[in-house]
What does this fold into?
Amino acid sequence: MRTFSSSQTFTAPRSPAHLDHPPPTRVRQPSAWWIKGLFRSLFWAAAALCAGPLSAQAQAPKRFADDMAERTRACTACHGDQGRAGPDGYYPRLAGKPAGYLHNQLRNFAQGRRHYDLMARLVDPLTDAYLGEMAQYFANLQLPYPTPTANNAITPERLAKGQQLVTQGDAARGLPACTQCHGVRLTGVQPNVPGLLGLPLDYLNAQLGAWQTAQRRAHAPDCMAEIVKRMPAQDLIAVSSWLARQPLPADTRPAERAPAGPALPEALRCGSAPELSATAAKPMNGGKP
Amino acid sequence: MKRPWQGMHPVKRLGWVTLISLAVLAMCVVWDNWGDLLLHTPTTATQITTTETAQTQQASADQIEQGRYLALAGNCMACHTTRGGTPLAGGRRIDTPFGGVYSSNLTPDPATGLGRWSAQDFWQALHRGRSKDARLLAPAFPYNHTSVITRQDSDSIFVWLNTLPPVVQAQPVHTLVWPVGTQPALAVWRSLFFEPSPFQADKSQSAEWNRGAYLVQGLGHCAACHGPRNALGASGPVSDLSGGLMPVVNWYAPDLTREAESGLASTPVTEIVRLLRTGGSSTAQTSGPMGEVVQHSLQHLKETDLHAMAVYLQSRAQSTPQPVPAEVKPSRISLQVATQGAKVYERQCLQCHGEQGEGIQTASGEVAYPALAGNRSVLLSDPTNLVQLVLYGGYGPATAGHPRPFGMPPAVLELQDRDIAAVLTHLRTRWGNQASEVTPLQVNRIRAAQGQ
It folds into this structure.
């Protein structure tokens, strides 16, 4: 049985079909059941007789708590228990990400800057305040991260190139280092900038690719869109491959403020994190619905 | 004297008769749709000027506020706003069985919105479903309902719309299949199915009842979803609340007059009001499109108006003869389906909805997870809403009166059609529930239609 209690690891067995295959979409012919019906009926009857008492014993006592863990079951079904990430690499971790960042993502789905129908359907009926409360709930959860597992084929030279871009950027192309906004430890910066570690390679690639094709956007001005525009696909993969191989530092919490450094150029202002910019005083819609 | 058709070849004569009949029919259709313009042009023009002047002078703060409120009651923004877009600037695509219709820009931009419209033009659109340039509007705009609205209310809404900041946003061209979107086709459709139906008060009923009827039939346009539609997409009278399957989005809007489907006859009026205002009552919860209506429209209405609507709806339910419930034969469910259903229920549903389908209430008596035993939505003969809820899960509307709803996880990625069919069959046949089996094909139809 699947449980989503607050203290245990995610041990619920999903159906093997879910882990290995894309979601089923085809009609299953009902007639096929009846052909094998007799045998299967007997089999299931026997199975039911055996399983009935067993499952009754295994039944955990029902616990209902009038809290946010209970209210976010619709989230944790895909994003994993306590938002520690889904098993397949496409449902990212929510736990411990900065609240402003999470809240902005929920707004992005609600307002059409990010596109995933299932997310849009979930957030549509909710108020901005409630979405903010959910974001804060997941931001407050500090859970251990898994060991990085990325093992895509990539030469050491390109990995080194990835590391260089992440830690130093490329002045010739006007690319700041990732660390300049995402923190020296790359665990993000409060309240709006996400960490870049502990994310599956597939997810990183999918997000960077989505920014390239404008499938993923942020509040204007969209600094990440501008940065990704300046990077060829080769560089994006070098960066994501390096990031996905890094273990988390001892302190996985987002930094309190961005590292001191040169101010971001005007072209790289972030609507979703106006505090990063020297010109942040300018009125923008960042951080507001 | 020789008549012209005497001595004519019969085929030729038939041809002429057909041709003349068609011409007469066409003239009738033209007259039906535009006749008032041919007759009354000069008078209307003078009327416009006088009304206009009167209006500009009288557009008081009260009237503007009234217009804002009425637009909320009409939920205009739901269709006339894109996702993340400026409210009422239009451009949202509404999918119909005949193709896509795009909503118009209601902000006062002169080129792309209502900036050059007069209050009379706006009234024409609401009352006759006709644009400023006499173009017939696509009936995705529920003008059968807006024709119920009084001239005074129409003017108030128009005055308020004119206070909005103008947004330059041209209305995209509809993508309706030919010939559905053409003016002749619309004219014929309207002659068949549309007639302005200004509100007729029922003198035998109270003022409150009539206010409720006016809101339900007019601005509320409840029958747009809660009434059946024919093959050409036309719904019945504006007061027909006998339930309908909403095309494309695939939700069933229950029959509001039938106790078995909506329970309005026996639910206390205060609970009906609570459901409309907060999205949930002690016995029912809104979901899907009704949740949107609560979220964007009903929760913002005055208590008196909600009460009036509840009184009207309850009176309609109580005065409708209820069909004798047909003897439901216990469905013959195969053992495999029954076992599979029980298994899926235990794994996916039991923790929240309970071993006996009893659901969970919070300490304060709020429904966290609805009971499934005896639940009207579970027992509807059309399982569409159940399939939607299991496939896509979701939250009820978060409203001022119910700000932190609990949610249901989507099962679309985890459960196969046959699992969903089995578990729905399980909860439709357990704990005293007696409803028909749900087939994997029924589940698949909805999954396929939603593109997931």
Remarks:
- The radius of gyration of chain A is 22 Å.
